[in-house]
Amino acid sequence: MPDPFTPAFTEDAGKKDQWTAFTKQVAVDSGPITDVAKTLAEFLLLRAKEALAPKDGEKAT
Fold first, then answer.
1. Mind spelling out the 3-state secondary structure of 14-44?
2. Domain membership of residue 22 as a residue range
3. Origin, by domain of life (predicted)?
């Protein structure tokens, strides 16, 4: 799992402060960084697995 999606990253006090400052700057409240990272990880990692899966007629490596 990429670092930005790990609890060690998303629960870091400094990262939380950066996230809060960023969301205030862009005037968007997308929720806590832990929720955003979880949502992104679920979406992106599923797509990555799909992209790496063998297509019809291809052999798995």
1. HHHHHHHHHHHHCCCCCCCHHHHHHHHHHHH
2. 7-52
3. Bacteria
